[in-house]
Amino acid sequence: MLTHGFRILSLGTTLAALAACTPARTVESKTPASAPAQAPASHGAARPAQANTMVAVSNATEVCRSAKRCRDDGACTSAGDTCIATSADDCALSIGCRHEGACDLIEGRCAPSSDESCRLSEGCTHHGMCSRAADRCIAATDADCRSGLLCHMEGRCTATEGNCAIRTNADCSGYPCLHDGACVAKNGECVAASTPDCKRSTTCRDEQACRLEGERCVP
Predict the structure, then answer these.
(1) Could you state, in order of their start, the residue ranges of all structural domains in the chain?
(2) Structure confidence by residue, pLDDT tens digits, 89-124
């Protein structure tokens, strides 16, 4: 009996020792892994399309700005399939402003807004187109024409239907008569009509063109 008890005690001691040496199992959590956080929905989903539209508009405007109509007429901004004027600055930089006084933005196009716009243009200083009428510059009076270079150089000193023309002998009394001996108005031109006119001219003095032949002074 004692031996049997000893065996039971020995077996219990052995089991206890084995339990002490066996590491405890870690109980794995069955909680599912958290799903990765989703980025909040962007409110700018349409931005790529908007950006493309802006690029297209910018490119179209660049095409307009490099076109002849921008340089000539100030039509430098894209509007659908065409180019239009949208800025007085574009008008002011155009050839139309310099030559024709079309320096102001009026109802989507460049045009003169006053007589002053016309008077500052080459159209006035060269051709006598110094008065505004119906959004353009014209020669409204003989005074307009006389302020133009062509009055002095060619005799275009009389206002006729919005332009300057040669109409009288007085128109020819400047450079045409003094230089070329062409002192008579005929069919819208200044012509030489006499040998005395030729002899008084600068051409006679400098080039010996002192004789009348046809309607010109010749050597």
Answers:
(1) 58-111, 114-165, 168-219
(2) 889 889 999 999 999 999 888 999 999 999 999 999
